[in-house]
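Hi Q.,

Before the meeting this afternoon, I wanted you to have the zinc ion prediction in hand. No need to reply - just skim if you have a minute. The sequence and ligand are here:
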Amino acid sequence: MKNYFVALALLLITFSACQLKSPKEENASLKMIEAVDFSHVKINDSFWSTILQKHVSATIPVCIDQIENQTGRIQNFENAAKRQGEHSGIYFDDSDVYKALEGMAYTLVNNPDPALEQKADEWIDKFAAAQEPDGYINTFYTLTGLENRWTNMVKHEMYCAGHMIEAAVAYYKATGKRKLLDVSEKMAQHMMSIFGPGKRHWVPGHEEIELALVKLYQVTGKQEYLDFSDWLLNERGHGYGSTGGNGDWNADYFQDNMPVKEMSSITGHAVRSMYLYCGMADVAALKGDTAYIAALHRLWDDVVLRNMYITGGIGSSADNEGFTEDYDLPNLEAYCETCASVGMVLWNWRMNQFTGNTKYIDVLERSLYNGVLAGISAEGDRFFYVNPLESKGDHHRQAWYGCACCPSQVSRFIPSIGNYIYGLSKDIIWVNLYIGNEAVLPTSQGDIPVSIQTNMPWSGEVKVTMGKNYKGEIRMRIPEWANEYQLQVNGKNADVTIDKGYAVLNRNWKAGDEISLNMPIETKMVAADPRVKADEGKRAVMRGPLVFCAEEVDNKQSYDKMELNNNSQFAESYNANLLNGIEQIQVQTGNTSFSLIPYYAWDNREAGRMKVWLDYIN
Ligand SMILES: [Zn+2]
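Predicted structure with the ligand bound:
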């Protein structure tokens, strides 16, 4: 069995001039790949369809129940509408309601449900009623003292506004209903009446508004929203941040330690960093501002090469929910907030669109199949906020959290999974993730139906079928985990060139043409970068994009004796009846035998210890 090092090679990124015009002609896009919205992609997949079904039947009902019945989140809006009563919970709890609504909106795109839509409309009516006449909306300040609003960057007013905007855009796209979009525009206008060039300075303590304003710009076409987002990004790092005298954190924590275009290392809170980078990428793409992109490349190296777990999780410290020193990646104490892994997907998706390089999708896939998926239970009704790589048996999924950013995050992320499969540029179809689906891609040559069949992540066989004639390239991502692959078109070996990790197939495609990609999935022992002290003398086991772990429930006798060596034998088997169907690996090292399951599936059975990194004896 071979050993592989996780250390990722530094590849030279080349910029390519824009090939597609952005929707708004006045701004030149820096992106070489345009996203394909999930509304064009119907997931039909042995792995993901189960997760999507449970999202509808369990995850969304759990979020609604928690918001309406178990916590005071919706009541805060009802009280704010009456301008009386108490605010309950945390000052940013509004954001969970907006994020749950965003998830409901995405769900409605591919699963129309009048009852769910009616629930969403009810909520939106309550939001609208809670809005102040001047456009301001935030139940915490409406109920605790409006005179104190906009005095403290830590209080997440723009963060909540950002999540409302994202929900509004999602719901407008799903239903055509404008009500929440109008509320959002009114709030945006309110913010721009106070802050901006020649007005007050402001640094949002938790980023989110920046990427949301770009979405608002894209759906309304109003340049002022994009400009305001750009302005907010550039407010950081000049000492304008104000914690209202009660902040416990320094500027590093808020990414307010230097102007964002000068940044080269990630600091502070992981989720805030991810949202910041997404905002920078979005503004850069539309404004043609390469200084943002140069910073993002430096930051990416810092995150991925020195501060990322094997699971694609980031943020090692619970203290600041974020970063410490390079290579400080403890396993038992790992924080790896679920939201940060979702952030890694969102950011790496954008980086791929700038570069056409698969290394970003490799990270996206790693974070998705490990860091993100671990955040939700097999039944879709329980969640992890913190995702350690080792447990003494005391870390368990919960139905909800006082700070519920992660459940609502997963709820809005899962139904949009179709976003990450394809990309488009002029006469090029980019295939990034291998998830079974039937899509109609809005290409430069009109709508082209394309479908993917696969049994990923359990098998590396992929079939892509063209539904219509198409002249141009299809770029198939060859994942970093694939040591070899075979690519055929209509059963014949295909001539391919490789460009930045993509196998490029160029021809006059006919309806019915079939591309077969076969990538044998091997069980591998992986070593961490030697500078990661926590993983010294250890190896993790991976298959394809999946990190595996040992749970005590499978290894009651052998848990304290488990080790790996160069002669360890691995036997893989698929168990359809376990945890929605998973592959298990039976490991034999000397006289000791033990069993591994995919990391994302842990803590769904009897409580017990767990670890990803196993002792390795040379
Ligand atoms: Zn979270």
